[in-house]
Amino acid sequence: MLGFLKEPVVVTVEINMNVMVLTLMGLISRLWGLSYPRAVVFDEVYYGQFVSLYMKRIFFVDDSGPPFGHMLLALGGYLGGFDGNFLWNRIGAEYSMNVPVWSLRLLPALAGALCVPLAYQILVELQFSHCAALGAALLILLENSLITQSRFMLLESVLIFFILLAVLSYLKFYNLKKHSSFSGSWWFWLLLTGVACSCAVGVKYMGLFTYILLLTTAGLHFWHVIGDQNLSNVSLMCHFLARGLALIIIPVAMYVSFFYVHLTLLYRSGPHDQIMTSAFQASLEGGLARITQGQPLEVAYGSQVTLRNVLGKPMQCWLHSHTNTYPIRYENGRGSSHQQQVTCYPFKDVNNWWIVKDPGMQQLVVSNPPRPVRHGHIVQLVHGITTRYLNTHDVAAPLSPHSQEVSCYIDYNISMPAQNLWRVEIVNRESDTDVWKTILSEVRFVHVNTSAVLKLSGASLPEWGYRQLEVVGEKLSKGYHQSMVWNVEEHRYGKSLEQKEREVELHSPTQMDISKNLSFMAKFTELQWKILTLKNEDTEHKYSSSALDWITMDTNIAYWLHPTSSAQIHLLGNVVTWASANVAALIYTCLSLWYLIRRRRKIYDIPEDAWQLWVSAGGICLGGWAVNYLPFFGMEKTLFLYHYLPALTFQILLIPIVLQHISDHLCRSVLLKSMFTALIVAWFSSVYFVYCTFSPVTYGEPSLSVTELKDLRWKDSWNILIRKQ
Amino acid sequence: PWVRQKSSCSATLRSSCSVGPAPAGPSLRPQPRQPPPLQDYISMRAPRPAHPPRTPSPGLRRARPGAAGHTALRMPAAGRGRAEPGLPRQRESRAPRRLPAHPAAPPAAARPAALALVILLSFASRFHRLAEPPHVCWDETHFGKMGSYYINRTFFFDVHPPLGKMLIGLAGYLSGYDGTFPFQKPGDRYEQHNYVGMRGFCAFLGSCLVPLAYLTVLELSKSLPAALLTAFILIFDTGCITLSQYILLDPILMFFLMGAVLSMVKCNSCADRPFSASWWFWMSLTGVNLAGAMGVKFVGLFVVLLVGLNTMYDLWDLLGNLSLSLVSVRTFYFFFDSPVISQTAVLYLHGPGDGFFSSAFQSQLIGNNLHNISVPEHVAYGSVVTMKNLRMAGGYLHSHWHLYPEGIGARQQQVTAYLHKDLNNLWIIKKHDSDTDPSDPSIPVEFVRHGDIIRLEHKETSRNLHSHQHEAPLTRKHFQVTAYGINGTGDSNDFWRIEVVGRQAGKLIRVLRGQVRLTHVATGCMLGSSGKILPKWGWEQLEVTCTPYLKETPNSLWNFEDHINPKLPNISLDVLKPSFAEILLESHMVMIQGNTALKPKDNEVTSKPWHWPINYQGLRFSGVNETDYRVYLLGNPVIWWLNLVTIGLYLLITVSAAVALKRGVQLTSELKDLSRVVLRGGGQIMLGWLLHYLPFFMMGRVLYFHHYFPAMLFSSMLTGITWDTLLKFCAMFLSPSATARKVYGAGFLALVLLIIYSFYLFHPLSYGIIGPMASDPSSPMAGLRWMDSWEF
């Protein structure tokens, strides 16, 4: 019964002092003087505004990546008690007292510091010596660019941390002995791999490439598991399902949950509302929701509506008409119908109101009970203020001559009959008898006579059309395009029988009651789609660079300059490390090719297990470098030096691997070996020396004199700021 | 004849009918019905396309008497594609046990007959109604025109390499077309012009595709049914037929592509007898075809990639073969690679070389090119020059009598970069502070030096190169560059500092070799060309901006190219002439730029790569309205969807086969053979499909449906192989019971029948149709518009 008491309770604690010391050094190097400078540094101006918006719970869309990274930064602000009141408008602006600079910068700095022991562990898990592992960690520790990037409110260090964590936990998982399958630690490391991967992807989309690399590696390893004929089919299936669950299902679920938290946190409307659809906007507090709250849901005959184009490009706009007519002749000599203009207008206006009318009845009010309009019904659209009917006919549109002109019909008695019947087609219907719903339904208006579709052409009209956007009838309506789809935004049931009354009614704000909310998945899909498709036009920046410049570090980025002295912070790497990393990658590639060809000819230069280590280490490190670097060549966005840092981290890990391999297998004699060791020591001191030399521009202090700054300009292409005396 | 055949069949039941070696033999030769396919096709020229021989049901009826004892396998081999039916209760009862356990490949004698049938059907389907419609269809307007240019020896520029257009020109020339038809727009009537020759040439190459695919599949799978299935798919695919019938580059490209694949496959199977005659033959044919494919369209690059990967794989195999010494491996490297690579290179270079030659020739006539002319070496004040941007495919600094439209910067005269020679490219170098007439002979020549501040006056319009702090039209962060002033009088924003890369102050500036940078004095920005294409108002020339980011990229460097100064002595610049390699590189950059410049316009609904395999939307080749003669490029939906399903099926089969092998499951030798065919042969084809399809997802240019057709060829071959394997597997699974053969035969027959029936339904798409649209119930195509996105 009490047998367990027979043995003494023994706690054996094994502490790897290497890891402890490295962590400590990492923390010191990254956290030292963290709140200096107390000013906005480089991209803090960009991420800071999102932190503020999180604090104020205001919705935003950032096309640079998913929200997890922003949320982590905001967490720092939350812990520091930041109220979000700071105007992030210019780099170098002094922080006001309410900004908790230290806690805002804490999380990225911690992530950066933890990369040091992670690097150590990865090399150990790759079965390299502790000496090599220590070398890797020290190289990461003394890498100026990683230090700079970690010490501010930026996301790269967080990304690198999660990437390294994912790699490490996968290696831990893989190195577990075969008999420990499905044990606690087996599950722990496997699940941690998946979680770290999804966090990496959640911080920046670049994390996706490392995720794919790990998936490929896991697939290859699993292929060997398949070949293991001692495993029964059932346990093979279990292995497969466990990996699928941990490496695919959980990451996807976590990724979605980031958005869930994001959308739960941000429930107020804000500056980016208009990018989203009306339905989305209506789900946010304030903004459109305030207007649409309490509108009737179902559009009925007699409804007064505003119609918004779903495309939202070049800007959001509503179907609009005004008393002016199309000019009889355009500048290029073509003629028009001279009827009332119909345009798309980007501002709220009383002229955006239209009344849905039943062609068979005269009245413009909603009957009691209301008769809802359904998919396929034929309606007329009456412009509220001018009481003219939306019409299109075989006349070329003003700017898009291949499409039909859309006008509000004026009867000139010139044998040009009105063609004002439109069929309502609900695009996102579930059945063919769906009712046309406010905000939710996306509707196409198909002209009954010509089967043209009401479309926003995107061109803006000349002076006579007040630069509003052109609306046309598209005859060749190929497939689905958002420019042909409209949705009702504001809506009320019309009650006024007389035109005068109606005008008053149109001017009054809508007021009634029902609320409608989008499901989370619909919101998620829309937001995700917007993030992926939103494009910023600016493709050039003073410090932008091309991917080719990064390998040789031909560029730098000036992050901050002291307002009076010449203290400054630059993103500048440790030149020796960068060069050695390149050389290591080159040596690795050449050696591998050489071994590979020789092995094919059955000549084995190194023992089989050393070869396996060599291949797996290279696969992770060189592969990690390649997947984090090469995709940039195909990208059209603005690129900066800091985009290279994840790739660089992997490349640095390769240096000790190559060094140890050379010393173990290529230095055959003792003399050679000791010479090589001496060389390594000399080289390492030069790394330390360069770190010390550049630390003033890494940490921003002390302020250097002009000559010292000039001496730091080791490459002509570096842009070191020197004040004019 | 039917009776006779029946008897002969039942007499020689086992060997001749079930497996089908003998059909080419005596029993068929006397048959009057042997040649009918051609006659049938000729009779199809009647306006009503739905004629009896095509419909399966009459065929079925007629064939029944002879059906006894025929297997599906044999039918096509016997040259009677329509007689498929009669499967076989009788056969089964007569000789069930004599059938082999699985349908082995028929003896070699059946193959020529099958091949003949395939060729016959293929040619018949492609040449049927070739001359219809007698007007320009779709892209004929481009390629026909370019063919005419070759006949007329007119120089032109196009985004595609020249071989395909030269071949079209040659075909036209040989068939008596005189190159006088203007090919202005689709729908123009050909009238008396002889266009059938050119169409016939394309249709000929298009027909060759089918036998090429047939032979490839036969070689890969060693299975006649698989090859026949592929052939039927391609013969009866409306898309392939349509695309082969007009003056287009695609049939030419696909011909070379399939030729390359076939010779690669053949070459692989001679790998055990290297350096034999057939090895050499196929090896060199691969090179020729690759060069041909590359010379027609850049898409040919993908097949080069395919062959390259395959060769690398082979070499790797060879390297592991320890019975070969390293020396012989090296020889192999040499011989394996050299013919393919060198031939590809040489032939490819020859093709464009001719194109370039004509370009040089042309420019010599006009006399404004670098060749054989001499210019003064150093630039001086008063010189008339052209300035060329140093970026690849950069243009000449250009201006013309047009203003920037309202709302885009200041409303001043446009300055652009223009790719072609033009008088508007000429600029005069003037001093910034004096306006003396440089042509005055009394003034001594003064050279421009590094660091000088100059003014550039546009010769035609006498306005100065000017910049100011307005945003540039496309690159928002740069400044706008305009031409400003009247008769050379402007303001201080016209001053530019001229500097040469890598020179000190005071040095002279050389023509051509001096890399010049122009810095705007007032704002400190640099003159550059962003390489973006201006919209219509800028005549689609390239944007010129003044960039505030002082980086030394080719975008912001210029050189002087033409240089006219009567006061200076000319030197010959032959030394400075670019080498052939440079011209080649440059011209390719221009072509690639032209290609990527075909960007979709805003809001334009374009064809997306994911549309293609599902046959989402076709292309109108001719006609829109009810009264028009309408031809619509659309794949036979049954075939395309079959292909699509097969890709999924193939992946499933591959994975299960690979896993089974890896798990060490004991397989019979037949199963091993099957999995080898699927993994090796099917793998090659699958790779081809991927290489010809996936890259399109990354292309920014406008894409069209017909870009998928090379990939579709691979997909069809994959279908042949996969279904043959699948049916064999099913048959094997059921064996040794007698139903095995039946399942195999019935499956194969069902597929072929399905294909033929669907072709019967959809053939008006290719051969043209007049009358009501498919939405009208009275149309022959009524009810066939299965997807709303189809437009017929």
Q: Extract low-pLDDT stretches of chain A.
A: 511-515
Q: How can the largest sheet of chain B be summarized?
A: 6 strands, antiparallel
Number of strands of chain B: 16
What is the overall silhouette of chain B?
elongated
Biggest sheet of chain A, strands in spatial order?
Answer: 9-8-5-4-1-12
Structural class of chain B: alpha+beta
How many structural domains does the protein architecture of chain B include?
3
Q: What's the number of helices of chain A?
A: 20
- The total count of helices of chain B amounts to 22
| Helical residues, percent of chain A | 40-55%
Strand content of chain B: 5-15%
Textual characterization of the structure:
The complex is a heterodimer of chains A (725) and B (792). Chain A is an alpha+beta fold and 725 residues long. Chain A folds into 2 domains: 17-261 and 544-712, no CATH class; 294-511, Trefoil (Acidic Fibroblast Growth Factor, subunit A), CATH 2.80.10. Helices cover 45% and strands 12% of the residues of chain A. Chain A has helices at 17-31, 44-56, 68-79, 101-125, 130-141, 144-150, 156-175, 184-203, 207-227, 233-265, 278-282, 288-292, 499-507, 520-533, 547-551, 575-600, 608-629, 645-666, 670-699, 706-712, and strands spanning 303-309, 318-325, 340-345, 353-357, 378-383, 390-396, 404-408, 422-426, 443-447, 453-460, 469-474, 486-493, 557-561, 568-571. Chain A has a 6-stranded antiparallel sheet with strand order 9-8-5-4-1-12, with no helix packed on it. In chain A, strand 10 (453-460) and strand 11 form a beta hairpin. In chain A, helix 3 crosses helix 4 and helix 7 (156-175) runs antiparallel to helix 8 (184-203). Chain A is elongated. The model of chain A is unreliable at 511-515 (pLDDT under 50). By secondary structure, chain B is an alpha+beta fold. Chain B has 3 domains: 1-78, no CATH class; 112-341 and 633-767, no CATH class; 374-575, Trefoil (Acidic Fibroblast Growth Factor, subunit A) (Trefoil), CATH 2.80.10. Helix content of chain B is 45%, strand content 11%. Chain B contains 22 helices and 16 strands. The longest helix of chain B has 41 residues, at 326-366. Chain B starts with a helix and ends in a 25-residue tail after the last helix. Mean pLDDT of chain B is 75; it is low at 1-105 and 349-372. Chain A binds chain B through residues 223, 226-227, 229, 233, 311, 457-458, 478-479, 481, 483, 537-542, 597, 600-602, 634, and chain B through 316, 319-320, 322, 326, 475-478, 547, 549, 602-603, 605, 617, 659, 662-664, 698, 789, 791.
